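Entry type: protein chain
Record version: 2
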Amino acid sequence: MTASLLGIYVWAIGLVAWFIIRYPYARKARKTATVKAVGWSRERILLAIATIGLVVVPAIWLASGWPAALNYQLSYVSVVAGALVYALSLWLFRRSHKDLGRQWSASLEIRDSHQIVRGGVYRLIRHPMYSSFWLWALAQALLLPNVMAALSGLVAIAILFFTRIDHEERMLIEAFGDDYRAYMRETKRIIPGIY
């Protein structure tokens, strides 16, 4: 098996794993009432962009081969690195959901009885779910042997993150005030000790 084909298989298995991880948490979260939602239309557009970059563009390339001119051969080193990054992404994705419990939502929402989560991975970073998405996009860049399919995830996550993060933190400051501001001083956004 070529490294490029192996990379595609690893990416596809990771994608399936992502949905398997998300499903039970999404079901549980639907049962918890939403007190406040922010930017519903903007949220739908941003989530669609993320889905396009992480799922749709690679799927179109896999199904059609277009654009074949942007294909290249992967090395096994790239595939191993991509698999390790993907594994870390999936672990962090699952851990973030587990630590948030019923407070998790796909869009910007404050849930009934919402509290600031400071345990688990949230003791190191405020937004580990975004960290997991950045890692997923990096893994995709290492695993898919087509420039457009490989980089579409990084572009999509950059749009999602940089458009959404300030709105999310403003919403949390409104909901929790000085308690959230103190948490912001104690932690970094997505990279422990750095950013």
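Comment: The radius of gyration is 18 Å.
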